[in-house]
Amino acid sequence: MLNIKENIYNIKENIKEVCYKINRNPEDIKIIAVTKTVDVDRIKFAIDCGVSSIGENKVQEILEKYDKIDKSIEWHMIGHLQTNKVKYIIDKVDMIHSLDSIKLAKEIEKRAAKISREIDVLIQINVANEESKFGIHPDDVYEFIDEMVRFKYIKVKGLMTIAPYAENPEEVRKYFKEMKSIFEQVNMKYCENYENIEMKYLSMGMTNDYLVAIEEGANIVRIGTGIFGKRNYNK
Q1: Which among 52, 54, 56, 51 has a CA at the least distance from the CA of 36?
Q2: Rounded to whole angstroms, how far apart are CA atoms 120 and 223?
Q3: What is the mean pLDDT of residues 196-204?
Q4: What DSSP character marks residue 28?
Q5: What pLDDT shows up at residue 195?
Q6: Widest pairwise Cα distance in the chain
Q7: Which alpha helices (H) appear in 90-171, and where do they start and end?
Q8: What pLDDT does residue 235 have?
Q9: What are the chain's domains?
Q10: What's the CA gap between 22 and 191, in Å, rounded?
């Protein structure tokens, strides 16, 4: 497991280097360790090495691991969330990154109201308009947020996207630029007028492109392979 410790150290050093280059504070960048298919022992080791936030793509994996992990750790639901699964995680996760429909918002609101818990969410934007990915089309963001302002328990904390995969991360820089532009426009239009809309987090960038994402304004990056190595999908 020593490579996990080394990987975490290297990622933090890379973030420091890019932040100093662009005059940002590396402490402002939240690293979410993506633990899809990663066993509990390796997650615990990563926590011992400084990981404080973990992200899961599937509700089932959250349920399998939740009681075995230190309760001080932040849990993030970063994968597509089906409405019928909301009830299982509404009391467990600190943030849902993948709000992508009014139907899902209504279910989150209903389940959060039942336990009187405000829940932080990010709106997922399909910035490249890929058919294979979920998310709101960039042209529909304002209409979507107009609907969000009426919810009591949902607290919109920012935006999230999954950029297209590219061997050369420079190829996806344009998508990160577009996301930052949307983020800033939403901030100007909504954040002074509505209590439950805040552009605090811009979640974009993964193992292959997180440094470019940070250069373009990300303050949450989601890193799995870069920390834990290649996933074992047979588990």
Answers
A1: 56
A2: 20
A3: 95
A4: G
A5: 84
A6: 49
A7: 102-114, 141-148
A8: 52
A9: 2-223 (3.20.20.10)
A10: 26
